[in-house]
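Field log, afternoon session.

UNIT: design team B
ACTIVITY: writing a sequence onto a fixed backbone
BACKBONE:
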């Protein structure tokens, strides 16, 4: 981390560079260049980890946390869209299902985070994050595993998307239920 902790290198800068690299996955996937897409997906995720580590070293900011999560969610949507463009006949329905499921996981994630912040609900397990959120069955690591598998076995992307989308809905339902109970319990106090 010391290598990156230099003047001129900022967590927000790493976030933006990582996102710019990640955006290349869209044309690479659309063109069927799956190994090139895999490389930029992994570089994006590496820079996403490094921006967070540098931010924790220098001090987390709300602006940086907002930028990071916003660009992460956009990145997570562009990868399935790339697979859809690569083989619309094969991937459109499954990719659409996956994007629909990502809306569920993303909205339940962000809605709870916003209300937890409003009501000052803390979770010591997430002290190193910009905000408190509910975990789930399908989070960042699992999503990247899906993308890696899709790049390595593109003919199987539709199957991966159907299955992962179902797991995302399990995450959404558990987050909505748990978030509802947590907020309801907090209101009673």
């Amino acid at each position: 981390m010391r290598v990156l902790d230099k003047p001129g290198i900022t967590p927000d800068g790493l976030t933006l560079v990582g996102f710019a690299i990640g955006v290349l996955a869209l044309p690479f996937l659309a063109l069927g260049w799956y190994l090139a897409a895999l490389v930029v997906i992994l570089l994006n995720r590496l820079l996403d980890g490094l921006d967070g580590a540098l931010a924790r070293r220098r001090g987390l900011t709300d602006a940086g946390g907002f930028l990071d999560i916003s660009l992460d969610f956009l990145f997570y949507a562009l990868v399935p869209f790339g697979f859809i463009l690569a083989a619309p006949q094969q991937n459109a329905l499954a990719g659409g299902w996956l994007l629909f499921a990502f809306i569920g996981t993303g909205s339940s994630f962000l809605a709870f985070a916003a209300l937890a912040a409003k009501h000052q609900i803390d979770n010591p397990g997430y002290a190193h994050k910009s905000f408190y959120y509910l975990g789930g069955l399908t989070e960042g690591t699992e999503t990247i595993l899906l993308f890696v598998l899709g790049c390595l076995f593109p003919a199987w992307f539709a199957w991966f998307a159907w299955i992962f989308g179902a797991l995302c809905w399990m995450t959404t339902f558990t987050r909505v239920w748990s978030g509802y109970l947590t907020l309801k319990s907090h209101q009673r106090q």
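LOG NOTE: Helices lie at 11-23, 25-30, 34-58, 62-86, 88-118, 140-152, 157-188.
NEXT ACTIVITY: expression trials, pending approval
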